[in-house]
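Same chain as my last thread, 539 residues:
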Amino acid sequence: MPSPIVEQPSSRGAEPRLDGLAPGALPHLQAAACAIRDGAESAARQALDAAFALAPAHPELLRMLGLLHGRAGRHAEAQAALRQALAQWPNYALAHADLGNAQQAAGETQAAFASWRQACALAPHSPMPWFNLGRNLQLHGDTAAAIEALQQVHALAPDFLPASILLGDALVHAGRFDEADARYRAALALHPACGDAWRGLANIKTRPLAEADREHLASALRQPGLNPADRIAMGFALGKVCEDQARYEQAFAALGQANAELRQLHPWNAGAFSAHADALVAASARLPTPLDPELGREVIFIVGLPRSGSTLFEQILAAHPEVEGASELAELEQVLGEESARRRQPLLQWIAAATAADWQRLGRRYLELTAHWRAHKPRHTDKLPSNWLLAGVLGAMLPGARIVDARRDALEAGWSCYKQQFYRLPHFACTLGDIAAYIRDYERIMDAWRAAEPGRIRTQRYEALLAAPEREIRALLAFCGLPFDPACLDYHRASRSVRTASAAQVRQPLQRDTARADHYGALLDPLRFGLGLPTLAGP
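reply #2:
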């Protein structure tokens, strides 16, 4: 989750939140705000101590102390400090918003939303509480409510760039592509080199960018002094528009440059990942027999490579009246992270010591955290592609869950990954060689798990779906224990929010012309070689 914005107290004019603060404490408070923003905990604590010496228990100092604790992961201490502030100033909207952030970080989601909504009620004409609420609604999958909150931000602060971008993203997820396009382009009118706006436009994948966009991007990328994040996002967008226009060599060059810059920020270590994957598989092979083999039957995990049809398979399942499509959830990672924190050991160090009762407890914790996704339908999907690495763990933790392994032609999937900017870094998709190594690890591990437990794991091939949609959809539903429903054949008519880069693609009928790799010829030989495929340029 993005970090909350730290608002720095101003010395200009009277601010109600500084009422009663000794004048000499203000410079220390401002220094603390800057240090918290920059992650300098020691400097922040020193500045706050100096401020508290002059103004003991002032609400704004307590709020800043709460932020400091929150940034350091001390969520209970953060909440205590913020509640102390609110005990003195119950109508302090900013403190309510910060309390919501601390509650969310502690896993108290319902309490967090209550605090965020209270902040909006107390300061209805301030854009920041609405932005905070809208951002978190979007992160938690409530797209319709997020749009309402972010539209409120836009009405109050039309030039607030982050809100325009986030509103554009939410509109894409809701399938409102014309409105999303308008929001992204409004952001570009304010900041022509806004990488997030170009990223948003490029991710509406069913819409080609215009020649004017290509010219603008090519020109802007030649300008010195661009922010690296903006330059990288613009490079990926340039790659898309060049491919749309059949300028394949230019597309390859633009994507190569963008990926090289992205990888330079956080290099991927393919060897270390492969060793970690092998160690996790070895540890997972020795897990205890589940106490309740049906635990987790409410859940359908969809795993695999990104850009391999996983969103499409989720859309098909979510068209079923018994299934809620929850998209890419963080709860599985959260539960395992909580247990690692409790044991003060990483997963690999405690996995072998966990008992069947431990795994049952963790499975129930996951179901507790995801219960809201089953408020209206009895089952939900969890479509985080990288969860393939936890397929063995899921056998002990949620043995009743079904796992759908989304497979697409490896060359097409690998190339599609290379064209997509990913935000969780380091990422394997920045070089063709790393992509090939990742695919090899993923395929051999999932093949082994499926061979061992075919009733729990199904390989669902994208190309097979294209060739025989009804046959494959019937087989997929049967694997998940669902009766056939014709609505699944018309999955593209579903009105649910789709919060991935495939949001536009899954709102149209099956397209049989999605292959792109052949256009690039021998340029993709490093990927072919890594996958063990014949190269075009010869040995």
